[in-house]
Amino acid sequence: MNFSTRPSLSAPRSHAFCCTAMQCPAFVYSKLMSMHTFVKIFCTRVRHRATWPLCNDRLVRGTRDAMAKKTKTTSNATLPERANRTTIVDVARCAGVHWSTVSRGLNPEKRHLISPEMIERVETCAKQLGYRANAMASALRTQRSRTVGVIVSNLGDPVHPPIVRAIEDRFAEIGYVTIVGNTDNHPGRQAALIERFIQQGVEGLIVATFERNDPGIAVCVEANIPVVAVFRDPESEFVPSVRIDDAKAMELAVHHLAERGHRKIAHIGGPQNVSTGYHRYRGFRRACKALANQGVEPSAVFGEAFTVEEGQFACERLLADHNDITAIVAGNDMLAVGCLRFLRSKGIDCPNAISVVGMNDMLFMEDIAPALTTVRTPTADLGTQASCILVSMIQGLPISNDRILLKPELMVRDSVTSVDAQQSTKRRRPAK
Amino acid sequence: MNFSTRPSLSAPRSHAFCCTAMQCPAFVYSKLMSMHTFVKIFCTRVRHRATWPLCNDRLVRGTRDAMAKKTKTTSNATLPERANRTTIVDVARCAGVHWSTVSRGLNPEKRHLISPEMIERVETCAKQLGYRANAMASALRTQRSRTVGVIVSNLGDPVHPPIVRAIEDRFAEIGYVTIVGNTDNHPGRQAALIERFIQQGVEGLIVATFERNDPGIAVCVEANIPVVAVFRDPESEFVPSVRIDDAKAMELAVHHLAERGHRKIAHIGGPQNVSTGYHRYRGFRRACKALANQGVEPSAVFGEAFTVEEGQFACERLLADHNDITAIVAGNDMLAVGCLRFLRSKGIDCPNAISVVGMNDMLFMEDIAPALTTVRTPTADLGTQASCILVSMIQGLPISNDRILLKPELMVRDSVTSVDAQQSTKRRRPAK
DNA sequence: CTGAAAGCGCTTACAG
DNA sequence: CTGAAAGCGCTTACAG
């Protein structure tokens, strides 16, 4: 079956719709449309255009008011057929009024200009014809697309969906539509996406992929598109940001470990060209330094991305170089899960041989083995707050705080034990 | 700081831009824009409009070719200020040619109509002015929005993001932009979303929330919007669907358990008004019936949604009514995780007291305790295949198979053990 | 090869 | 309270 809904791109469609279903050989003959599709479209059309003369389609369209004065019919034969959507003109014709009246009658803000019975008449016709305003035409005229864009690195990474979800919720409330794109952390893809979204006319952008001093920022500022950075800190005075206090999060993790007697603590960091990786590493180092007098000795190794695989590799390298560590602070939960997988694969017990702390507290981190002690990032809040700022920017309202730093919270679970407990069990890992 | 980029909705903006930064008291005075924003916009503007006379903005805009003949300047004072975006007319003016030539020069498909030096000139100007075609204007004219919509129940549910991700990837390839919406399984929200997306002019829709015989289908068919159902089966001849073979999946699970000696097997099902819940339950029953001669005795209890919480509640009810079961086949991984949480909370060992099988194999299901034996749904494939069908529909190509059923695959892990093993350990759960 | 014009479907200032 | 007209920024058939 052919499900195409644009079957007549090159078919003599204007002719087709002149004839009734009974007398339409040319149409069916063109074979560009299945009988089923034809009947479907035809019926819809007949219902929608009930008040129209069923003559030449082009001519009918042509009877629009402009047509009244111009005698020449422009032929637009190669224009892709509109999905024969009901327009404001159709409604106007049905109601026997001018389209401007229809527009007013259907717009709550202009409705007061119209008599009640007129509103009623217009609404009835609109409902009857199944009229739906063309948002693009409206946007073109009003210069407001009621559209926002969200750019993330990868929706497949479980930190992002809650952010996007929260944003969509907030904007749906005010009738905006949310378009999303994934960059996979490729600057090129990000640039292309920003370009495409601006072309698309987004009224604002929420970006979760800005690197430090990202060139994408200049593009948005120049195009005069409100942007807010979420999750990552673009370190730009031009862009408000909403993020978690990464350094503080690492401090919580390090203190938690130090209180339990850990001294040889390692960090498995993420990429340092993004603020999350960078600030977490710095936070880790600073926290360790502050505890140096207690004998805390930090070490670090880095993944090239915040992924489980990188976590595994990094963990392997870490243990090769620093066999004496008792605890790991991972740059995020993905890396932490990678650690756990590696440790498990080597028969190294967590937390009894090595304790692990993650960050973000993604879904299911309480269900994994061992239940992961991690620092929670309120991802939905991140999205909500970013949305609120963006809404203000779009509406031209001042924003009180353009540098929002959410508080991290330590979730104590089972992947950390005290050094004492480690020593009383088979603390040492199997020799390599 | 005020980050607004539309500060002058009511400010005398056209006047503002007549003056240089030095002599602009009225503008700054209006206090609708911070100095910083003003300077930013002003600089951008000066750079972009370098070739324009810096006189009255409205007048400058008015010098468009239509203006040449009409003496009266229409005032559009209350129109929200365009983000003073460079238009095709600006480029034309810069290049000293007609805009139609610019349009052709910038469109790869029409470029052959234009002389090479003309193309060069146009491209130079476009680049210099930072021209970006207005996708909405283009869409309005061509009747193609290069936009598709994706509707899911909840991006926060980890099954959906990979689907959306795959769809976005496929459509980004052909320059389409993807808009997403969440319904939370509320028919009302779904209807509103479909309505809004159609208004927005989507060329197609991928819907993961169709119930059986969903009324939303008629809306799309009537509006002549290509739709493909993903994940769920709308049971409609009008809509192609791409889904997993739910019944087969349950069969795999039941057989896996039966082979390991389980006879009292329970199903924790999802909502029965959606095909996933419905077909999985039916598949479970059929598989059990086929093994009735081996003594397999099914039982079932249902959650009201595919959530962890519902899994917990359902598991509690199940054990209250059927204390003798040895294994549970959950309707999906969320329900399975709910089971595991409940069992853990009651000190009931999985798999040694009760074995559990999930479905979908979401991220981290191999990491939870115990590693979940589950039936994998290739979610990314679901998205990819749905996208391919939708692309064909949009392009008016015939589609070979409009009822795609992907094969499930059993992932054997640690949440199932044999009844023998169960009996040799502390099989019986603590009495309630 | 390039220009001039029309029109996609709306909204809104201006008349009446 | 309603109508007539203009224009948002494009694309494209038609002339030349």
TrEMBL record, chains A, B:
<dbReference type="Pfam" id="PF00356">
    <property type="entry name" value="LacI"/>
</dbReference>
<protein>
    <submittedName>
        <fullName>LacI family transcriptional regulator</fullName>
    </submittedName>
</protein>
<dbReference type="Pfam" id="PF13377">
    <property type="entry name" value="Peripla_BP_3"/>
</dbReference>
<dbReference type="InterPro" id="IPR010982">
    <property type="entry name" value="Lambda_DNA-bd_dom_sf"/>
</dbReference>
<keyword id="KW-0805">Transcription regulation</keyword>
<dbReference type="InterPro" id="IPR046335">
    <property type="entry name" value="LacI/GalR-like_sensor"/>
</dbReference>
<dbReference type="InterPro" id="IPR028082">
    <property type="entry name" value="Peripla_BP_I"/>
</dbReference>
<keyword id="KW-0804">Transcription</keyword>
<keyword id="KW-0238">DNA-binding</keyword>
<feature type="domain" description="HTH lacI-type">
    <location>
        <begin position="86"/>
        <end position="142"/>
    </location>
</feature>
<dbReference type="InterPro" id="IPR000843">
    <property type="entry name" value="HTH_LacI"/>
</dbReference>
